[in-house]
Structure formats: C-alpha cells, structure tokens
Write a structure and sequence with these properties.
This protein has 203 residues and is α+β, with helices and mostly antiparallel strands. The protein contains seven helices and seven strands, in the order ααααββββαααβββ.
Length: 203
C-alpha cells in the first residue's frame, strides 16, 4: 500500500512539475494558503532535498524543543496575517507555520474567523457552576490554554478511475499553540493529501 501511495504521489507531483518550480515559491505564499497541495508538496520536499532551498535562501535550521516541528530562522522578516512580522517559520508533517510573538492565538484567530476546537472554557464554566471550586480555582487547573483551530480554504476530491485510485486534497488555514513554544502563536497553512480507493475510502 505504501508503494502505491508513493507512486501516485510521484505521478501527481510529476504532472505539476512544469507548473510549479519550487524555487519560485514564496514562503509567504505557502503560509498564506496560496498554493495547491501538489505545488506545496514539491516546495516542502525541496527545502532540504536535492534543490537545497533552505541553504539557497539563507535559512538557518535551529534546534526545536518540539520533535514534530522543523524550525528555520529567516535572513529577514516576513509579514503574514496582515501585520504580523516574524523571522521564524516551521514545518510539520503537512503544514508550514509562521511562529508569531503573540501569546494569545485568539487575537489572530478572531480576524480569521477561526474558533478554538480545544477551548478549556466550557470545562472551567462547568467546574465553577458546580460550586465545588471557585472560578479562580477552576482557571488555575488549566495553566496552559490550548488553542487549535482551522478554516478550510479548498477541499477537492478526484474520484478513482475504473482501474485506479482517487485523491482528496485539502488546504486549510491553521492557528494553534503548543507548550514547547510558550508565548507564541503558530499561524500557517496545512496541505493535506489522501489517496482514495474505488469506493472513495481513504487508504
């Protein structure tokens, strides 16, 4: 199954090779969800791949306290989300993120009309309403307020052909925070690809 997935992904990327040169892709466009999934994947693989885009662009890889995040320091600041400036970007399995010096992600999310799917507020309200603890005590139980939210930008499904496989590609604006990066907001874009069988089920 992994071989089939790899072959399909390779074919998809080859089809877009003439359309998207990774060297022409701006990290700002990638963070701003202006790419399609194949274009982003070619760009992401070129960062430390044969093209060595990170080195060519003068990015410096920095030690990350989070093993799931690869971080780079840029030679000059970029501006994203309208007015937020940063010199640090990060990559996860399927996303590129700008690391912003914003302690409360809700500030950035409000303008993007993105809600927090991991809000602790309902639990705090319930604990306070029970009368067993004060609101202050309930809030103290959650020293780190997790934020995780997204807004789907594009959602494209290509059904499987008679003897082949289909695909499901999603581009989503993401806003989050993590305990390993206190005082930071991770603002970026996820580019997701799933291979589908003839029944439309993700493989």
């Amino acid at each position: 199954m992994l071989i089939l997935y790899a072959l399909m992904l390779a074919a998809m990327l080859q089809q877009t090779a003439a359309e998207t040169d990774p060297a022409d892709v701006s990290e700002i466009d990638a963070v701003s969800c202006r790419l399609d999934v194949p274009g982003y994947m070619r760009f992401a693989m070129a960062i430390d791949g044969e093209e060595q885009l990170a080195r060519t662009r003068g990015w410096k890889k920095i030690a990350s306290p989070n093993s799931f995040i690869a971080e780079y320091d840029l030679p000059k600041p970029i501006t994203v989300a309208g007015s937020y400036s940063t010199r640090r970007i990060a990559f996860t399995g399927d996303a590129i993120l700008a690391v912003l010096d914003v302690a409360d992600p809700a500030i950035v999310a409000r303008a993007e009309k993105i809600d927090n799917s991991m809000s602790a507020q309902p639990m705090i309200d319930a604990m306070a309403a029970s009368g067993k603890v004060t609101r202050a005590q309930a809030e103290a139980e959650f020293p780190f307020r997790k934020f995780l939210g997204e807004r789907i930008m594009t959602d494209v499904t290509e059904p499987a052909g008679k003897d082949g496989y289909g695909s499901h590609m999603v581009v989503a604006r993401t806003i989050s925070n993590v305990t390993t990066h206190p005082g930071k907001t991770l603002y970026g874009c996820a580019y997701r690809f799933d291979m589908l069988d003839k029944d439309g089920t993700s493989l």
